[in-house]
Amino acid sequence: MGKWESGMHYLLALSILIILHAAYSAAEWRARRKHEDPGEDEDSLPLDIVIQTLMGLSCAMISVVHIAGAFKEIRATVELAQKNWETTRNRPSFYIFNHRGKAFLHTMSLLPRDT
């Protein structure tokens, strides 16, 4: 991992902290507002909390896009055009090596063999 990727990880951590701080500030502002004027309900947050939230969100979006790496094509034909028919049907994720054969191998070795 190079400096660019680790910098993006730090930016993501910083943006999460910014968003958490903005959420805490908004909750504290609403509690203080409710305590000072119980009859009056104001729906809008102060501008500094809104700007802080938007900056944290934009930094998080930028860092996640850079951490994710190169995007793939949505169309499957672009990726499948480079493969032949034999490799298209090959799915290594469906290979199962942890199955009941191990348990049966032990019992089968105990049976007498007809030779």
From TrEMBL:
<keyword id="KW-0732">Signal</keyword>
<feature type="signal peptide">
    <location>
        <begin position="1"/>
        <end position="27"/>
    </location>
</feature>
<keyword id="KW-0472">Membrane</keyword>
<keyword id="KW-0460">Magnesium</keyword>
<dbReference type="GO" id="GO:0072546">
    <property type="term" value="C:EMC complex"/>
</dbReference>
<keyword id="KW-0967">Endosome</keyword>
<keyword id="KW-0812">Transmembrane</keyword>
<comment type="function">
    <text>Part of the endoplasmic reticulum membrane protein complex (EMC) that enables the energy-independent insertion into endoplasmic reticulum membranes of newly synthesized membrane proteins. May be involved in Mg(2+) transport.</text>
</comment>
<feature type="transmembrane region" description="Helical">
    <location>
        <begin position="49"/>
        <end position="71"/>
    </location>
</feature>
<dbReference type="GO" id="GO:0005886">
    <property type="term" value="C:plasma membrane"/>
</dbReference>
<dbReference type="GO" id="GO:0022890">
    <property type="term" value="F:inorganic cation transmembrane transporter activity"/>
</dbReference>
<dbReference type="Pfam" id="PF10270">
    <property type="entry name" value="MMgT"/>
</dbReference>
<dbReference type="GO" id="GO:0000139">
    <property type="term" value="C:Golgi membrane"/>
</dbReference>
<keyword id="KW-0333">Golgi apparatus</keyword>
<keyword id="KW-1133">Transmembrane helix</keyword>
<comment type="similarity">
    <text>Belongs to the membrane magnesium transporter (TC 1.A.67) family.</text>
</comment>
<comment type="subunit">
    <text>Component of the ER membrane protein complex (EMC).</text>
</comment>
<dbReference type="GO" id="GO:0031901">
    <property type="term" value="C:early endosome membrane"/>
</dbReference>
<dbReference type="InterPro" id="IPR018937">
    <property type="entry name" value="MMgT"/>
</dbReference>
<protein>
    <recommendedName>
        <fullName>Membrane magnesium transporter</fullName>
    </recommendedName>
</protein>
<keyword id="KW-0256">Endoplasmic reticulum</keyword>
<keyword id="KW-0813">Transport</keyword>
